[in-house]
DNA sequence: CATACTTTTGTAATGATTTCAATAAACTAA
DNA sequence: TTAGTTTATTGAAATCATTACAAAAGTATG
C-alpha cells in the first residue's frame, strides 16, 4: 500500500485512499482486470467504494500515463499497469488476457505517416488458451 | 448488388436480400462502419430492415470469415471487408478508422507459443488525423 | 475556524448489444 | 402446387457497461 502511494506520486497523481487501493490491486494482480473485477475485489474491504470512483480513478490513471487501457476485449475495458512495450493475447473462450512479451521491439515502432500523428500502438492476439484448447 | 451476391457465395453465405445489401454497402464503403452506420445507410432504401438483422448478419459474416471485426474502437464494434493482413489507425478526436497498409508482413506472423493457440492478430494505432491535429 | 477546492458517492440516464418470441420467407418432399 | 419444415427477419424488451450529474464528504489554505 505504501509502494502504491509512492508509485502514484511518480505520475503526479494525488494518492487518496481509493486511488492507492486501486493502484495496489493493479500492481499485485497482473490480470488486466476490468472495472468490475477491480470493484468486486476491493469492495469487501472498502464497503463504501463506489463503482463510479473506480471509473474516475482509472480514467485519471490512463490520463496521467500510469496505466494503459486495452481495447482487446470488446465487452469491457481492461487495464494494464505494465506500460512497457508488449502485446496481449485474449482467449476467446474464457476471456482471460495474457501478456506477450517476446515480440520484436521493432513491432512497436510508430510507422511514418503524413496523414496521421500516431501516439500509441496496440498489438493484440486472439485464440484459445491451454485450458480452453479442447473446446 | 450482383457482385455482393457472388461474393457472399464464396464464403458459403446464403445471399438473402438483406445480406446482399449489407455486403454491398461494406464493399463500396471502406470506412470500417459500425452497426449503426450500416443500419442508417440502408434503412432509407430498406424501410423494414431491422437493426437486429444487421447484428445477425455481421455476426454471420465474421463467423464465415467474410468480414473482420475490429476492437480498435471501444465504443462500437467496427467491421472491415478487407481481410488481408493490414493494420488500423483510429483518430481519438473524430473517431474515424483508416487502414494502414504499409506494415512489414512479418508483423502479422503468429508468434510461437506453447500456452496458446493464436488464431488472429490485430495491430492498432491511435492518435490524431490530419484534420484533427489542431486540437 | 471558515472558505475554497478536490474527491467520492449514489442515482439516474444513455446507448450498444443480446434475448426472445412472433412473423415471414425459402426450401423440401409428396 | 401444397403442406410441412427449416431458416431468416423483425420488433420489442431486457441486459449491461459506461457516463452524467448533483449532493456529500474530505482535504488544503488562509
Give the SSE map.
The structure is a homodimer of 135-residue chains.
Chain A: H1 2-10, H2 17-28, H3 35-42, H4 51-64, E1 68-70, E2 78-80, E3 87-91, E4 97-100, E5 116-129
Parallel strand pairs in A: 3-5
Antiparallel strand pairs in A: 1-2, 3-4
Helix pairs in contact in A: 1-2, 3-4
The first copy, chain A, binds a DNA duplex (30 and 30 nucleotides) through residues 14, 16, 18-19, 34-36, 48-53, 55-56, 75-77.
How does this model look, in words?
The structure is a homodimer of 135-residue chains. Chain A is α+β, with helices and mostly antiparallel strands and 135 residues long. Chain A folds into two domains: 2-79, Winged helix-like DNA-binding domain superfamily/Winged helix DNA-binding domain (Arc Repressor Mutant, subunit A, Orthogonal Bundle); 83-132, Dna Ligase, domain 1 (2-Layer Sandwich), CATH 3.30.1490. In chain A, 32% of the residues lie in helices and 21% in strands. Chain A has four helices and five strands. Chain A has a three-stranded mixed beta sheet, with no helix packed on it. In chain A, strands 1-2 form a two-stranded antiparallel sheet. In chain A, strand 1 and strand 2 (78-80) form a beta hairpin. In chain A, helix 1 (2-10) packs across helix 2 (17-28). Chain A is globular and about 45 Å long. The structure holds a DNA duplex (30 and 30 nucleotides).
